[in-house]
Amino acid sequence: MTRLWIVPVVVLVLFACPKKEEPAPPPAAPVATTSAAPAPAPTPATTSSATTSAAAPAAPAGIASADGETPGAKAVVTELKRTSGGTVSLKLTLVNGSSKRLGFGYDFADKDHEIRDHATVGGIQLIDEANKKKYFVVRDTEGKCVCSSGMHDLAAGESVNVWARFPAPPDDVQKISVVVPHFSPMDDVPLSK
């Protein structure tokens, strides 16, 4: 008789104990980029290479673009316009679609102002080919460029927006070349008002 009470107790214990479940794997960490546009989904043709290099950020639409000396690097002019103060304002996006870091240090500096131009885009130039004139970035009274400064290197897959001011060419100049160090020249970029 004493054995009959063991069976209900065993059944009760089996159903009363919670089932041990395996913990869910943690979610994948998001990839940080400074680009506002989402990275495109890999296609079957690029899936195998996606594991060996960073995904290239989407380049913004612009009025001109140039490839860099480093494969995958791109410069995109998003705005080039005259200002009411008698200067030209240039805005561009640098995109690092390579697998290497894109250094700012002195890479974008004006060689004549190298000490003051560390981590700036002071070496960008505008070239008016019709009038055979080159325009350098405007400088303040201390010789510092009126441009993006304090820049940090771009990791693979990152992009950054930069700007610079230049003296304005004559009013009849409607197109001008933009030269960014370590990128191919961008010719005939429209100059808006």
Keywords:
193 residues; four-stranded antiparallel sheet; Immunoglobulin-like; mainly beta
| Beginning-to-end CA distance, first to last residue | 102 Å
What order do the helices and strands follow? HHEEEEEEEE
The CATH topology label of the domain at 55-188 is Immunoglobulin-like
Secondary structure tally, helices: 2
How much of the sequence is in beta strands? 25-35%
Q: Give the number of DSSP strands.
A: 8
User: By helix and strand content, what is the structural category?
Assistant: mainly beta
Q: Taking all residues together, what is the mean pLDDT?
A: 79
Helix content range: under 10%
Low-confidence stretches: 9-54
User: What is the rounded Rg?
Assistant: 28 Å
Globally, the shape reads globular
| Main pleated sheet | 4 strands, antiparallel
Physical arrangement of strands within the biggest beta sheet = 1-2-3-6
What is the CATH class designation of the domain at 55-188? Mainly Beta
Known CATH architecture of the domain at 55-188? Sandwich
Protein model, in words:
The chain is mostly beta strands and 193 residues long. It has a domain of 134 residues: Immunoglobulin-like. The chain contains two helices and eight strands, in the order H-H-E-E-E-E-E-E-E-E. The protein has a four-stranded antiparallel β-sheet, with no helix packed on it. It starts with 5 loop residues before the first helix and ends with a strand.
